[in-house]
DNA sequence: AGCACA
């Protein structure tokens, strides 16, 4: 799934209905999806078999689409390749991002990745005539890059243009912070706060629950806005918002823990229209919504 | 940084 080589049709799972945009900058385009998320636990599992790609391959392969529709054997070959000894130096830690609209802004790419642990910089490349753009995001190490990759690959970046992100390890690390000569517009976005409190990314403690607890919502967040976002998740049942006192929080119920886990991984840190600053924080709730004592469903 | 409703 996450490691299926990106093809235009492999990401249809994310159905419509998500309407989110950034509030980190003034007057964001309303039609633009901007998804900021924190490290997802599943990324851990990737570390045992990180995909390897020859660091000596050329950037030229990155003319969109980044990868031709692969034959069925591609995935196997892809992983088999990891068995080959590669130079340990210069570990791949740069992501290649395709599927961006031609009018994508460097700031949008930056916002997409800036909250992931280990984010270092991102570089957008647009060719004035093309309707497609691509970008690179540099991370401190490969695990960080893989975590960000699995969290952003397949995401719908732009609802209007039906832009779906294809994120993969780049063929080689970005060599320099400087623009290369063939660049058109090029912007290098450093993280706003590179050494963020690491505890901000610590996993939350509650045991998995089909209901999610949603915090860090903006004061104007509505239940409908949350429905718009969460209803795109498989197994979604309902949202219950609480904004009587202080900061609003919400509870989102799913049919099972697989669904809530999928949602927590997909929507962690997403910035809503109503968000101020950081995106929403998702945790498993402490108890299931509407669960009566005699009801033994989990 | 906050976990209610039945």
Automatic annotation (TrEMBL):
PROSITE patterns: RRM. Residues 9-24 have a biased composition (Polar residues). It is found in: Nucleus. It comes from the Eukaryota. Residues 1-26 are annotated as: Disordered. One of its GO terms (molecular function) is RNA binding. The keyword Ribonucleoprotein does not apply. It holds the Pfam family RRM_1. InterPro entries: Nucleotide-bd_a/b_plait_sf, RBD_domain_sf, RRM_dom. SMART domains: RRM. The keyword Nucleus applies. Residues 93-172, 210-287 form the RRM domain. Keywords: Nucleus, RNA-binding. GO terms for cellular component: nucleus. This is RRM domain-containing protein.
């Amino acid at each position: 799934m996450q490691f299926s080589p990106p093809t235009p049709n492999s990401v249809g799972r994310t159905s419509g209905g998500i309407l989110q945009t950034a509030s980190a900058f003034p007057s964001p385009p309303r039609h633009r999806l901007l998804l900021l998320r924190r490290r997802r636990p599943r990324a851990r599992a990737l570390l045992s078999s990180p995909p390897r790609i020859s660091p000596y391959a050329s950037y030229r392969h990155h003319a969109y689409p980044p990868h031709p529709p692969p034959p069925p054997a591609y995935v196997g070959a892809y992983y088999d390749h990891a068995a080959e000894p590669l130079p340990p130096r210069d570990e791949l830690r740069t992501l290649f991002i395709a599927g961006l609209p031609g009018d994508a802004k460097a700031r949008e790419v930056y916002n997409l990745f800036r909250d992931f642990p280990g984010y270092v910089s991102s570089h957008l490349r647009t060719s004035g005539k093309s309707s497609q753009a691509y970008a690179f995001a540099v991370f401190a190490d490969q695990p960080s890059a893989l975590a960000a990759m699995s969290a952003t690959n397949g995401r719908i970046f732009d609802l209007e243009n039906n832009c779906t992100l294809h994120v993969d390890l780049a063929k080689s690390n970005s060599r320099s912070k400087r623009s290369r000569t063939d660049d058109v517009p090029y912007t290098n976005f450093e993280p706003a706060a590179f050494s963020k409190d690491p505890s901000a990314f610590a996993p939350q403690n509650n045991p998995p629950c089909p209901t999610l607890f949603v915090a860090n919502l903006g004061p104007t967040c509505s239940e409908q806005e949350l429905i718009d976002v969460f209803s795109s998740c498989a197994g979604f049942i309902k949202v219950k918002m609480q904004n009587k006192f202080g900061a609003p929080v919400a509870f989102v119920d799913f049919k099972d823990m697989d669904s809530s886990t999928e949602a927590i991984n997909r929507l962690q840190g997403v910035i809503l229209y109503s968000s101020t600053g950081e995106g929403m924080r998702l945790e498993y709730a402490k108890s299931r919504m509407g669960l009566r004592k005699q009801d033994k469903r989990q």
